[in-house]
Design brief:
The protein is built from four helices and five strands, in the order βααββααββ. It is an alpha+beta fold and 149 residues long. Helix 1 runs antiparallel to helix 2 and helix 2 runs antiparallel to helix 4. The two termini are 16 Å apart. Pfam families: HATPase_c_2.
């Protein structure tokens, strides 16, 4: 029987500064990566980097740098869930993904592909708005169960 009970839960809050990306990735690598297969850990790191960067550059582009971004990671026996919380204006994830697919960008163009990377590297992608007007990008990635979890 597959259990969906959380085995490990981690939280980090940082200000809206791209300079915190290094801290975010170090935190993830130090606390979460030891529990994941190497390839899965790398895919989740890239997805987290893209999600954090999108929150800073897009969701919080007109908000003070002191506006917090909350990062949550939960490890379950067979999947990992990453949640990136922001306070920006909500958007339609499905419409944005569809628009990005229609407007295939040049490989040389910087930006505009973050959501596509996240979608391709992970198994589930959702975007929710909470009653307190915060938004949450929810990323799920399945992996083979490890004994150490």
């Amino acid at each position: 029987m597959i259990s969906e009970h959380t085995k490990h839960k981690f939280h980090l809050q940082v200000d809206t500064k791209l300079g915190h990306l290094k801290d975010v990735l170090s935190w993830f690598e130090r606390l979460i990566s030891p529990y994941l297969p190497q390839k899965t850990g790398w895919q989740c790191e890239v997805a987290l980097a893209e999600a954090f960067t999108n929150a800073v550059r897009h969701a919080h582009h007109d908000l003070p740098a002191s506006t917090p971004i909350d990062l949550e990671v939960e490890l379950f026996p067979n999947f990992l869930e990453i949640r990136v919380w922001d306070s920006g204006k909500p958007f339609d994830l499905k419409a944005q993904l569809l628009a990005n697919e229609k407007n295939v960008t040049s490989i040389e163009k910087e930006g505009g592909r973050g959501l596509q990377f996240i979608k391709k590297l992970t198994d589930e992608l959702q975007y929710l708005t909470s009653p307190d007007y915060r938004n949450c990008l929810v990323i799920r990635k399945k992996y083979a169960s490890l004994n150490s979890i």
